[in-house]
Design brief:
This protein is α/β, with parallel strands linked by helices. It has eight helices and nine strands.
Length: 235
């Protein structure tokens, strides 16, 4: 029985977008989905189901950080049989290969989270996006003519990182720092589901520059459209 998602059976589509911000979930539902209906308002974490180009799609806010995402994604996989999940979120750029507002198609996610340690102990799991989703997203992004990169991000438990660990991640080719993707990809591996993440660079730790809170909620539409088109292409 789901504790944090109050949706009846059949209310959630097999494919879902997962923004951290519930207001971004609302924006996606209102601006991209047809006949969107709200199925969840528990704790203000909005969830909606509608259609995009005739394909049923849901969008569910997950909150900030891997523990919060873990709750929602576990319930979506375990109780609502979601088969495909794409995180649509923001990250801080740490590489000169990406610019502010660029899109990143995430093919893998590093992490400093104790969630991985609790599962694997001394072993090191490599959270990886589903290749069919990454391949489709890469082809679609190229056709959209947007600035994008395909690469790895790091899902950190720290937002305010006084140790500046981003410098070490950047040294090894990581493009951005965020807080959720590694847990999504790990849960997808556990439940044998398809998942990936698509990021927008909302601020640049290396080069400087940042976007506003309103921009983050309502203007990062390239990643939203890309995620939806990827779902249609791989249904």
């Amino acid at each position: 029985m789901s504790t944090h998602i109050n949706a009846p059976e059949g209310a959630i589509a097999p494919a879902i977008l997962l923004p951290g911000d519930p207001l971004r979930a609302k924006f996606i539902a209102e601006n991209f989905l047809e006949n969107a209906k709200c199925y969840n308002e528990v704790r203000g974490m909005y969830g909606f189901t509608g259609t995009y180009k005739g394909v049923p799609v849901s969008v569910q806010g997950t909150g900030m950080g891997q523990p919060s995402l873990s709750i929602y994604v576990t319930e979506l996989f375990k109780f609502y049989n979601v088969q495909t999940a794409i995180r649509v979120g923001t990250c801080g750029g740490v590489s000169d290969k990406v610019q502010l507002r660029d899109t990143i198609i995430v093919n893998s996610a590093c992490s400093d989270s104790c969630l991985l340690n609790q599962r694997f102990g001394a072993m090191h799991f490599a959270p990886t996006s589903d290749f069919s989703l990454v391949r489709a997203a890469d082809k679609i992004a190229a056709g959209m003519g947007i600035r994008y990169s395909v690469g790895s991000v790091t899902s950190s438990d720290f937002f305010y990182d006084k140790n500046e660990n981003w410098k070490k991640w950047a040294e090894y080719g990581v493009l951005g720092i965020e807080m959720e993707s590694a847990e999504l990809l790990t849960l997808a591996a556990e439940y044998k589901r398809k998942a990936m993440a698509i990021m927008t660079v909302s601020d640049h730790i290396l080069l400087g520059g940042a976007t506003t809170a309103e921009e983050r909620q309502t203007t990062f539409t390239n990643m939203m459209k890309l995620a939806l088109e990827t779902i249609v292409a791989t249904k």
